[in-house]
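Write out the 3D structure for:
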Amino acid sequence: MNEASTGSDAIQVVGTAPPVRVRARRRRTRLERAEQRARVATGLDAGHSQRQMAAELGVARSTLQEGGACAALDPEVPAALRALTRTPEGVRWLQRQVFAVHFVLAWLAGAGVRVVCQSLERSGLSAVVGASSGSQHRLTVALEALVVAVAAEQRRTLAEGMPRRPITVGEDETFRPETCLVGMALVSNVILLEEYSAARSAATWTQALREALEGLAVEVIQGTRDEAKGLLSHVQNALSAHHAPDRFRVRQEVVKATSLNLARAVKPGDVAAAPAQATWQGARAAPVAFEAQPHHPRGRPPADEARTQAALAASVQAERNQPQAVARQSDAREYLRALGALDRPEDLQSGQAQSLAHMGERFRACWTRLEPLAEAADLPRRARERLEKARRVTTGLRATIAFVFATVPAKVEALHLPPVLDRARREPRIPAISLDRVAERRHHAEQRQTLRALRAPVLAPLRHPQHPFQALPPSERPHLEQVALECADRFPRSRSCVEGRNAQLSLHHHGHHRLAARKLAALTARHHYLIRRPDGTTAAERFFGRPPAPLFAQLLERMP
C-alpha cells in the first residue's frame, strides 16, 4: 500500500513519483500591484507587448489584464477615485489617510477600534479600504509596536553626545489596578520610569530607577516625593540625593485640617440658630403646658425659669458664633496663602532672595497665628495631627532652600566669571527668572502683573549701560542665560506633573483591566515626542537638549 505524507511546502507519494514541492506564493500588497501596473503602462507606451512585460515581471499574462482589477471595490465608487487607487501615488495617499486616522484617534485621543471603523465608514474610505474590526485592530497593534521601537531608537540617538546634567526626580505610585511606579524629571517633564511592580519598597524603586537611567548622562541630585518611608530611604540612602518634600503637601494638609471643620460652623444665621431657637421656644411653652394640666403631679414643680434662661443664652450665643466662624474661616484662608508664598528662595513681596533666618521667622509667625485658630475652632484630634504634619514638612522645605543656596554658587563659579558678574548672576537674575515662573502659574491677571512688576527694580542694575554685563559679547550672553535658568530650576516645584500623569493613566485604566507593556510604552512615547508646551518644545527636546526627528514621518515611512 502506498503511503502519503504532506507538509506545508512539499507533497510526496512514496513509490510512485519523486517529491513534488509546492511553494506558497506571497500575496502582493496593494502598493506593489499599483507599482506593477505603472511599470506595465510605461512599458506598453514604449512599444513593448504584454507578453514581454509579463516575462520581465515574472507573472502570468492574465495578471496584467484589466478585468477583475477593481472588482473588489464598491461599484458606487466614482471613476476618478477608482483610478486614483490604482496608481502608486494614490495608494500611498490612501495609506496615509488610514494611518492618520489611527494615529490621531486610536493613539493620540485614546479611542477604540470601533471609533476608528466608524470614522472610516463615515468618511467614505471604507469603500476603498477594509473597515472591519479585525483588520483595524491588527493595524493598531502594529502601530503601537512600531511607536515603541521608534521611541527606543530615538532615545539611543538623542542620548549620544548628551551633556551630563543634574536632575530632580519626582516619584509616586498609582494603584489602578495594581502598583505602577512613576518617576519624572521635574524640569523637562520626561517620564524616566513607568512600569508595573509587585512591590514598592526602597530596593524596588532603586533598581527600577537605575535601569531606567541606564545610558543617560544624568545625575539625580534631588528627589521630590511624599512622606513614604520607602521612598525616603530610596532617595537619601540609595541615591545619596537630597530629599525635597513636596510643597503641595503643606497646603494640602492645612486644607484638610481646617476647610471642612470651619465650613461646618459657617452657616446662614437662621440655620445655625434654628436648633437653639427651637429649644428656647420649647422651654417657654413648658410652663404653660404645666399650668394647663387639671391635676398637677406631686413633688417640686419643674425649674422652667432656669431652663428658659439657659435656652435663651444658648440661642444668643449661636447668633454670636456666626460672625466668629466666618472670621476664622477667612483667617485660615489668609494663613494658607501666606504659607504658599513663604516656601520659596525669593520674597514675593520685594522680589529679592530671602535669607533662611528671615524665612524661619515668617514660618514661625504663621504657625503661631494658626495655633490659636485651631484652639478657638475646637478642631478634632485628626485635624490637629494634620497641622502638626504640615509643620514638620516646613522644616524640610527650609532644608531644601538651604540646599539650593549651597549648590547654586558652585554652578555659577564654574563659569569663572569676574566677581561683579558672578554676583549679578546669583542675586538679581536668578530671582527674576523665578518671579517670571511664579507669575505664569497665577490665575488672576492682577497677580501676574504685580509679580512681573517686581522684576524691573531687580533687573535695573543689569540693564545699566555701565554694568559689566552689558560689555559682554552677544555670543556669550545666551550661555550665561542658560546657566541662570538651570540655577533657577534647582528649586523643585511640586510633583504636580507626576500627579497629572497618574490621573491620565487612571483614565486609560477605565477601559482596560491592566495596560499591556506595549500599550504603556506607547503612551510614554506619546508623552515624550508629541505633547508640546506653548513654546513648541517636547519633553524629549527639553531633556536631551536637541529636538528629535518628527515622529509621524518616521512612523509613516516604516508602517507596513
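Residues 1-69 form one domain.
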